[in-house]
Amino acid sequence: MDEKEGISPDIRIRPLTMDDYEAVLKWSKDDIFCSANGWEMNRTPEELHIWWRMCVENIVEDFLRMGIECDGKLIGYADLAGIQDGSAELGIAIGESGLWGKGIGSRAAQALMDFAAEKLCITVFTAETNEANMRSRKMLEKIGFAEVGRVGREEYMGMDGLLIQYKLEK
To answer: pLDDT (tens digit, 9 = 90+) per residue, 8-31?
Structure first.
């Protein structure tokens, strides 16, 4: 599953299901993943199950969360938030921290943007990340996002940092 060694994993975006809960439960026990993605630590399985059901049922009209599947296994999720007038904010979370830094996030982001352009007529994508999140910054730049601002602050991995805003028009 290592793109750097010449093996290109099959990445696809798909709807989430309640059958994905076991993978999500595993991610919730990974303190590095939780800290990097702003997940509450030490959630009970019951709390997580309720939250996951809300993600699967997706009752918010301007938000879409899709699963990221790698070689047939759920490994993360991809979001479109603030969907309005042909634009949306992109978010990617790879749940298995052992897969970080292998190019999977950029391929998943591109797959989600292709889906959004084709199915939702989205042509303007924005994104935001903490200045300390170098993997996210590199991913966004790799797929063509340009920095457009530095406004706000947020905690990332236990440290306060500046937020960087990005934009991509297709």
So the answer is: 678 999 999 999 999 999 999 999
